[in-house]
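ARCHIVE CARD
SHELF: 3
SLOT: left
DATA:
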Amino acid sequence: MARKPRIEYCGALYHVLSRGNQKRPTFRTAKDYEDYLGRLWRYHEKFGFVLYAYCLMPNHIHLLIEARDVPLSKIMQAVQFSYTQSFNRRHKTVGHLFQGRYKAILCQHDEYLLELVRYIHLNPVRAKLAKNPRDYKWSSHRALLELEKEPRCDVSAVLDLFGKRHKEAAKRYEAFVLEAIGMGHRKEFYQVKDQRVLGEDKFIAKTLAKEENEHSGKIFYKVSLQEIIDAVAREWDIPPGMILSPRRSRLGSFARSMIAVLAKSVSGMTMKEVGRHFSKGESAMAHRYRALEENFAQDTGLLKRWRRLHDLLIAGKPRKICLNAYPKNK
């Protein structure tokens, strides 16, 4: 089954989980952790999202983010892409650092905010990296206890829920966290509805209805799939017959992936529609789509060529309204 698009709107609360590629470490040294946190906070200042909590584990990260004017997809692309480049330069490595698409669970704010803050900060204890969460340096727990000179999370957004005076509120917050120190993995925080949403039935129904209503009018362009195929064939000098051939070839597979990304972003086509043209299933095309998007994070040259081709395809073309399309932000 193809993954459903993310639900994005101002005020949405997300529990973000991103794992290292093939479970490999995403942080090797203290400098790596500092680098990631520095980038996360700089983009926090730039994009204006609320960062309730974070925990950087050796091979994965947890973030609790409330998006505001800038959607989560843009926030995560900026943080993950810039950190991956920096990590690869520093350690003289290449390729993907993070595994596929990060998981972002849209959560009911009032019901799950504090529970998720606690759960995220207890990750090092569950992993036996610390006996007490205040002993783990790479989470926002210490900042909420006001033990850090330069906190890199929105301290007031959490402590204000425990009282007006931060000193007393921090004590109440710590007591709240330690109450659950013996709990193991909380699978209920991952049992989501519609592959994307965590909350009560009423919240889920309202959220999905909101998505349907608010995202039903994205503007695309009247560009045919054949025009996109021809443009990709010219740009990379790939014979059209190779693109359409059922035989497996590296160039043909790359071309179909590029066509899928362009068809969705330019014309609003679904992966089912694109796959039908190539006699491929929806899931197969969705996989190619995601794989190429991940390559963009590693290959800025390829990303520039994609953008240039995108602009060439839409130049002078009339717009169209594509109903019920998800507004993917790029």
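SLOT: right
DATA:
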Amino acid sequence: MDESSPANMDMKKRRDPGVNRTLLVFNCHEPWIHKLGALGYALDIIVGLKGKYNQGWDYRMRPLPAHARLISLPEALQSPTEYYCIITHNTTDLLDVRFRPEPRLLVLHHTLEGRLREEHSNIDPEKMKDMLHGYMELVGGHVVATSMFKGESWGFTDDIVHFGIDVNGYLPYDGHETTGLRICNFISSRRQILLWDLHEQAFAGLPITLVGHNPDLPGVEAARDWDHLKRILQAHRFYIHTADPMLEAGHNMATAEAMAAGLPVLGNRHPTSPIRHGISGFLSDDPRKLRQYAQMLLEDRELARLMGQRARKTVEERFSLTRFKHAFLRSIE
């Protein structure tokens, strides 16, 4: 029996007295959507959306959240369910549900500048910002940003909800592989956002594993599933995150998850980086220094373990799943 089929999920909802509200959620990024399972609500997740490389749910990234079912956009628009809130991620999502009566929430996952750069758009950023503010005021929607950095980019800073991570959900750090790690999708189209030139200059020739959906990069593949990704994190020595401070935040969910798994992080200096230089990782804009730091950690597993412990502690303090749950529930109330 398919436990994730709509009929079976509906039966589960009816059997569970604690699930008495349903959220309608557009699928955007499975790792973030999976966090919504912590809210305790039923979830109708819209898949099959245009422009997404995977038309269903990408089980390589995460399992389906608890009390969730997958539905199509036409099914969502015709659903008799009175949704407690509709969670969207861009203006296309908002327009798709414009005829549904429920409250809607827009979650900002990217900076405005990074979004326009990735889409190769010539739209004036200020015009784009004004358009979004006007539309949200018109429909009476609420906006949440996943970091202050991203909220400031769009001009929405009233409600900031950082993603949440349960550090106990990861395997104990081992770091036995004398190899660094970086997890990211679509590298080729995001080179400037990711400061990929710096990455290549710093780590060329060193043992670095790339993980993610990058069909144009030979030998680079996504993890097979969530458990496989946890084993990858457990085995590697350190993690890498570089990002243009004008276009992207100094950390993303993959970085925080690597920290939760006990990996120290190497990256460029960024005003929003959660890394304390020399404590939980190393930061530099000089590729030669980054290379030296990488070599140091490759040669000293115990140093990597100690720094990784500090990185894990940072996640416990700044990105707890409990804090995310309470903050996001306030956003949709």
